[in-house]
């Protein structure tokens, strides 16, 4: 028993001496046998620790990158403003804005949508005029003549029927997927740049018109030809084919400065008044109740084609005094713009826009207007009879 206790005590001493690490190199043989050097964390000298840390940081630290600067449209870095010789006023939309109608106010200060000091034209809040608006009619007539000369020079000789047919076939849906969509904003300024970009790769481009601008397709076609200097060689409903011209050179395309944001619409007079002209307050209330209770002439689909709406309303006014158009599903901006167009094209008197409906009244002294403000559903542009019958068969298949 005594021998066992002695062995146990000796084993405890050995374990205690070997398990505790030495505090200094004089109590250990590791330095002499294995040339062991302690890490800096075990070194008692703080100066050595700081120096070793600085050396490690100098090796591992990367050089600081300069702070990120996003490409700002406002930072021109001393560049000169863009000078464009296009002979027309720059507007956000050429089909949905009427230069003859003047707004009664602006919703924001006159900030140019092109950015500050990017274009050599001043923004009036509605447009960027090419000539001083106080110059007079002579300057506007000169601009119109300049536009006509540029368009005639680019178009050159007229296309033959065979050439026109070939261009229209190349723009077919089964041939190419290139297409420009013309939506509720109509022909916008930036869309002109898209048209010229498509004309780099093909002589003609397909344009699909949808929504509000299709009420007045004649205005859409005339503005496209006037602002892009092209020519429409085919039209079927809302789909157009715009030809660039024989003498068009993509390398000498016009300079079109892009609008960086959509400008705020100015304030125009109210479309719906409290009392209709020639009626009392009670008569206007009865007129609105009667209009909302009348059967709907048609229902407008979202982003549809409304080219036949004007002749449909004119025919309805021959029998009915009030016409209601169902606009459920459309945004308020869309059917208010449609009502404004109908007021000028039919012509008619707007009664109400309540409950997503357009109610219009033909007025007391109604005289039906004939033609002039809408186009036929299809134009063939002097195409031969064989191709005409082919298009008719394709359109009947689509239906």
UniProtKB/TrEMBL annotation:
Pfam families named in the record: CRS1_YhbY
List the SMART domains hit by this protein, alphabetically: CRS1_YhbY
**Stretch list, region Disordered:** 37-82
UniProt keyword list: mRNA processing, mRNA splicing, Repeat, Ribonucleoprotein, RNA-binding, Transit peptide
Record-level GO cellular component terms: ribonucleoprotein complex
**This protein's name:** CRM domain-containing protein
> Which GO BP terms sit in this record?
Group II intron splicing; mRNA processing
Going by the entry's taxonomy, the superkingdom of the source organism is recorded as: Eukaryota
> Which Gene Ontology molecular-function terms are recorded?
RNA binding
- Residues forming the CRM domain are 157-255, 277-373
Where in the sequence does UniProt note compositional bias of the Polar residues kind?
42-54
Q: What organism is this sequence from?
A: Lactuca saligna (Willowleaf lettuce)
